[in-house]
Sequence to fold (542 residues):
Amino acid sequence: MQSLKWVLLDLLAQCKTMTCFKQIHGKIETSGLACNDLVATNVVKFLGKSATHFDYACEFLKQLDCRVSSFPFNMLISSYGNGEKSREVVLVYRKIVRDGFAPDMFTIPAVLKCCVKFLGKGEGRQVHGVVVKMGFACDVYVENSLVHFYCVCGECGDAKKVFDEMSVRDVVSWTGLVSGHVKAGLYGEAVELFLRMDVKPNAASFVSVVVACGRMGYLNVGKGVHGLILKHSLGMNLVVGNAVVDMYVKCESLCEAKRVFDELPERDIVSWTSLISGYVQCKRPRESLDLFCEMQSLGIQPDKIILSSVLSACASLGALDYGRWVHEYIDRKGIKWDVHIGTALIDMYAKCGCINMALRTFSELPGGNVSTWNALLGGLAMHGHGDEALKKFEEMTSLSPRLEHYGCMVDLLCRAGLLDEAQKLINTMPMQPDLLILGALLSACKAKDDAELSQEILDRLLHLEWEDSGVYVLLSNIFAANKRWADATRIRRLMKKRGIQKAPGASVIEVDGKAHEFLVGDTSHPQNEDIHEVLDILANTS
Fold:
């Protein structure tokens, strides 16, 4: 009998099809080995590979005494749970319970894990009822599974209730609740929960709270958490380090982000993406391109997110040659375009003056979104292609125009000198105009010397908390040109009251693929003296 058992076990290990299995199963039944623990475990192991024959598996489990061992039952549930058909796990669970199986504290977490996969709130709540009924509510493993289930399903209130009723809480309990609140977008509550933790946090705890600090812009709290990370010797953990870099980026503390980035013992694509895209988002495109060059020199292949960010940096700097190189790199590497890369390319070409290339790129993009249309319409408006912009605007039948699209149309009307039509369009907008729209209207007012319309814009400014200096300066200049000194002074006082300072003028030129930015009165450029020598020569020869 023993030799037969090992022969059958060997056959089970080699079995690949259900037809073959049924032949082996028949021999197992006739030999009386079906109730042998080792044989039963291997039978369930095979049946657990696919939920297609779960009825067959349940029939096999019927003949086993669940009072002797619950392992085969829990093994089948866990096996199905690791597959794609997580809903079938609930059916299997119900069937074996009806057949006499009593779930234990190992069964519940496995079933809840499956409920999480298909967000089965109703099924999970029923399992919670079983937990209470069978007295498993004092088991920390079961309760942690319930906290995780409710958090993933977006029921943070229920998760918190389970958590508060726990007699014992470990780091998994706290981390589950904190991360659940982060996933639900409740970042402030996540930070508060972390600060209440009475157990030593683990790497997952720190990652969750650091993400929350970044989303909330809690720089000081984030620095404190960073200090705790270093204290717990987790600063070298790549996942934690990436989260800290991203937190500093989100809080616009790029010097700290770069310092942490430089101290990472190893970096992955996430590390580079966080900092490169962060520089772009914080309007520091030169640093973004410099970091991208460093990444290239190390032989690291960029992903689509990094390439989109680099293209945005090129658009901001007007670095056409660099942008073309990125475009060629994308095609050379066979990187498939998505809406983000396509939109970034359109925006780059439009802002670098290649509107025809922007139109061509738009036509080649298989599908776009509102941002794609915005980039194209903005480019057409920027270059005065009114007819083409109106034509494209009319094509947006499947999309509701957003603020940016209204801005493009207002800009076109203003460029054509149609101030009344532009103002009518602004008045019919379903949202408040932004700085770009009012800036376009103001520029047209200055060109037409229309101080009355400028007064209406001033009234809008008084009720809105804009912080861009350009609109205020332009409005003040219009009033000054019309000798309305009181209104001009009023604007300057409003700027002072709101703490708004005029941004210094700047220009950017591209030399050998590298962008150079110059501010008014700035002498920090490393070739400052050489530049001024050339300027002096040019001035003397003119």
Notes: The radius of gyration is 33 Å. The chain has a mean pLDDT of 85. Residues 18-31 form the longest helix (14 residues).
